[in-house]
């Protein structure tokens, strides 16, 4: 039946003001209004339909994405959308595209690909004078990774050899493994690329630098002489990331003018002299830091989507327990379902708040960089690398868990979950493999521990190391379940665990003659110590959020429940760490678990409203199981008939392949 809200009873159970929670989730009233308006604009525009995406062949799928991107650009211009609105548009269109990499570059390298922002600016300021955009039509991509080298950036092979005779660099791919491989937007669209290559002057190798290189003609879009480009092939999942043209690129002695080197950390003069500026070389890696913080901010969106689908469906779905012909039990009422689902709901909120905080940290560091203050670069690198790793791993695993929480129907494309997983899971690899990034955090922690005796005081997210003496000795000294709700108790538990794990690693490394050998040997333990540190950051930022003034009936109380679930779930999952480092006893761990179960029961009546607070349209969710009205079964039934396989009763191939077999079987039966 259309128009009936099958989840209405669930919504009536809410003990808090959902509209106020929507504002907390969005970050501000203004952010909520922008999100709400743009998500409805996209949902109501058939130009952004995604219904058939998982059924389209690759070429059609890709062309359709190009159409959507062009249409989106037109809307941005016609409606004079601000940058904030354009970003929301990208989010709610919900289709990975060449434009993502381009936009990231635009924000990192404004000076180079300034035209995208110029476009918006021109629309606002220069309406009479016409827009400069068509004459500046370029698209950029980020060409760093090679076929043989991804994580090890220092190992890249592409060369940029300076020729002082012509004042040019000669860009060359000397081996097959030096072919650029993976850049999004490269395969079929980009006209330009930021290419990372080894700089060579006068026969000397100066390591990796970045260069802007035109790849395709602006007239006919063909590759320029000496350049070979293509798409690297179909990727995991139906639809999914196949909307993006991840590409391969080779250079055969391609010449570019000297001024196309990005001379931010070093310079090559006209006579070929290499000059290193007095700035950290790591500035070359700033684009990665920038994208990593965006990925952290995006993680909560992907996870909350999956959680919204699984929570609504868990309230609709009933199994077992009917008596005298009554209704069966809603699967959301099974404690096992709650213990798998509610920590993911809590994680979505936790990642939202840590993402907001990381954005502020990143903004602060970019302002400092402009003032030539590089002191916080290591901290922001460790935070972006570690949180990117933690949030994307938890989100990818969480989406898959949500699919399982939806039983068999979760495996259908119409549940939205298989495609969401396929689109999301590469986030564990791109912008730095998650293990490689945690090892970066571990290096930072080991450095911090080794400097503790010095005058350099730990600040920011490692400030807790400053009270190491206390954290190494303290013991959890309370016994009641409700003690686990005190923020100070939770914080100390996570600090003590993180500090003790780092110190244990540092002590074990010191047993080796060569610290690098020790680091390599203990890498698995170091990754766990890094994860403990990152979990502490997420927990502490959630607690900090709760210290703010949060209006709205019951809103703060719900957030306290979610925060408790997030922290105590981690404590339960990583009990070995907390017990092994001696901060708590096994009795205290079991009391914490008792408290966790109590929190699940408190959350239960609010579950549907907590996912409603994400304010997602049915278009954005793209899931029959997650429909707002809970009208799942008729819609699943209806959707099945739309599958191309159901266009005819007798399938293509029947006469060639099924009929002969049937005949053979009939004959065999007749012979018997
Ligand atoms: C159809 C729809 C249309 C819509 C249209 C609408 C249009 C509107 C547009 C709207 C807006 C859109 C918004 C877009 C948002 C996009 C969101 C996301 C999109 C995601 C796209 C994904 C694309 C993916 C890209 C990539 O993957 S790029 C490649 C990334 N590669 C890596 O990450 C490699 C990983 N490896 C490394 O980072 C390094 O090599 C290393 C960290 C492993 C270093 O190793 P090594 O030990 O060798 O170290 P070095 O010697 O190099 O360095 C030593 C010291 O430097 C420190 N260090 C290292 N890295 C950094 C760093 N990044 N910053 C600072 N410091 C760093 C080390 O720690 C060492 O320090 P020490 O000496 O003190 O120890
Ligand atoms: C969808 C997608 C989009 C991408 N977009 C771009 C793009 O736009 N531009 C671009 O330049 N690149 C892009 N990439 C490439 C991406 O950045 C790399 O794939 C990524 O950095 C990982 O590197 P790798 O593939 O070399 O993995 P590898 O480093 O080969 O990893 C393989 C395995 O080895 C392990 N490993 C590697 N090194 C270590 C170590 N030191 N210690 C312990 N374990 C280790 C890893 O954990 C992993 O398990 C993209 C990739 C994907 C999947």
TrEMBL record:
Q: Outline the extent of the Acyl-CoA oxidase C-terminal domain.
A: 487-663
Cofactor(s) required, per the database record: FAD
At the top level, the lineage of the source is Eukaryota
Q: Acyl-CoA oxidase/dehydrogenase middle domain spans which residues? A: 141-243
- The segment(s) forming the Acyl-coenzyme A oxidase N-terminal domain are 17-105
Question: Mind listing the UniProt keywords for this protein, alphabetically?
Answer: FAD, Fatty acid metabolism, Flavoprotein, Lipid metabolism, Oxidoreductase, Peroxisome
Q: Where in the cell is it found?
A: Peroxisome
Q: Which PANTHER family match?
A: ELECTRON TRANSPORT OXIDOREDUCTASE, PEROXISOMAL ACYL-COENZYME A OXIDASE 1-LIKE
Instruction: Show the SUPFAM superfamilies listed in the entry.
Output: Acyl-CoA dehydrogenase C-terminal domain-like, Acyl-CoA dehydrogenase NM domain-like
Ranges of residues in domain Acyl-CoA oxidase C-alpha1: 285-446
Which coarse location class describes where this protein primarily resides?
Answer: other
Task: Name it.
Answer: Acyl-coenzyme A oxidase
Homology family: Belongs to the acyl-CoA oxidase family.
Keyword field contains Chaperone: no
């Amino acid at each position: 039946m259309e128009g009936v809200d099958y989840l209405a009873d669930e919504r009536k159970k809410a003990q808090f003001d959902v509209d106020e929670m929507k504002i907390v989730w969005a970050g501000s009233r203004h952010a909520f209004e922008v999100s709400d308006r743009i998500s409805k604009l996209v949902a109501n525009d058939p130009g952004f339909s995604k219904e058939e995406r998982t059924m389209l062949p690759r070429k059609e799928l890709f062309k359709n994405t190009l159409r959507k991107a062009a249409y989106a650009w037109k809307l941005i211009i016609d409606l004079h959308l601000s940058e904030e609105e354009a970003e929301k548009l990208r989010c709610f269109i919900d289709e990975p595209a060449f434009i993502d990499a381009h936009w990231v570059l635009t924000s990192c390298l404004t000076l180079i690909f300034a035209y995208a922002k110029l476009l918006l600016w021109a629309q606002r300021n220069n309406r009479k004078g016409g827009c400069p955009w068509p004459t500046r039509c370029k698209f950029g991509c980020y060409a760093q990774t090679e076929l043989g080298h991804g994580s090890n950036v220092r190992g890249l092979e592409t060369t940029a050899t300076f020729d002082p005779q012509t004042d040019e660099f000669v860009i060359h791919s000397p081996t097959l493994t030096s072919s650029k491989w993976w850049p999004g937007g490269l395969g079929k669209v980009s006209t330009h690329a930021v290419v990372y290559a080894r700089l060579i002057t006068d026969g000397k190798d100066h390591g990796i630098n970045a260069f802007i290189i035109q790849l395709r003609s602006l007239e006919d879009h063909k590759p320029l002489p000496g350049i070979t480009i293509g798409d690297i092939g179909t990727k995991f999942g139906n639809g999914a990331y196949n909307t993006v043209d991840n590409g391969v690129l080779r250079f055969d002695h391609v010449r570019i003018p000297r001024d196309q080197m990005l001379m931010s950390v070093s310079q090559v003069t006209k006579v070929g002299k290499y000059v290193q500026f007095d700035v950290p070389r790591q500035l070359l890696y700033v684009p990665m830091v920038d994208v990593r913080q965006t990925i952290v901010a995006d993680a909560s969106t992907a996870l909350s989507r999956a959680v919204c689908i699984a929570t609504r469906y868990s309230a609709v779905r009933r199994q077992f327990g009917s008596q005298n012909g009554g209704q069966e039990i809603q699967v959301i009422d099974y404690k096992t379902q709650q213990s798998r689902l509610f920590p993911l709901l809590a994680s979505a909120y936790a990642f939202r708040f840590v993402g907001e905080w990381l954005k502020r940290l990143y903004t602060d560091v970019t302002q400092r960089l402009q003032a030539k203050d590089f002191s916080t670069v290591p901290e922001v690198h460790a935070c972006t690398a570690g949180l990117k790793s933690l949030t994307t791993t938890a989100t990818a695993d969480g989406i898959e868990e949500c699919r399982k929480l939806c039983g068999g129907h979760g495996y259908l494309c119409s549940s939205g979950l298989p495609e969401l997983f396929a689109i999301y899971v590469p986030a564990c690899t791109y912008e730095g493999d998650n293990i490689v990034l945690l090892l970066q955090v571990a290096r930072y922690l080991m450095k911090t521990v080794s400097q503790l005796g010095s005058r350099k005081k730990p600040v920011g997210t490692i400030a807790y190391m400053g009270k190491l003496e206390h954290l190494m000795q303290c013991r959890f000294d309370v016994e009641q379940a409700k003690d686990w709700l005190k923020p100070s108790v939770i914080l100390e538990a996570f600090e003590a665990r993180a500090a003790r794990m780092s110190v244990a690693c540092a002590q074990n490394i010191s047993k080796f003659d060569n610290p690098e050998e020790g680091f390599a040997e203990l890498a698995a333990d170091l990754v766990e110590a890094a994860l403990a540190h990152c979990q502490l950051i997420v927990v502490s930022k959630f607690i900090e959020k709760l210290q703010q003034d949060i209006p709205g009936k019951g809103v703060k109380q719900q957030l306290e429940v979610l925060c408790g679930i997030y922290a105590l779930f981690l404590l339960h999952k990583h009990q070995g760490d907390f017990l092994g480092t001696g901060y708590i006893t096994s009795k205290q761990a079991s009391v914490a678990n008792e408290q966790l179960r109590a929190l699940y029961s408190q959350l239960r009546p609010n579950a549907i409203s907590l996912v409603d607070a994400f304010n997602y349209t049915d278009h954005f969710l793209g899931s029959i199981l997650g429909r707002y009205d809970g009208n799942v079964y008729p819609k699943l039934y209806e959707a099945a008939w739309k599958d191309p396989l159901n266009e005819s009763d007798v399938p293509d191939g029947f006469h060639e392949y099924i009929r002969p077999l049937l005949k053979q079987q009939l004959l065999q039966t007749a012979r018997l």
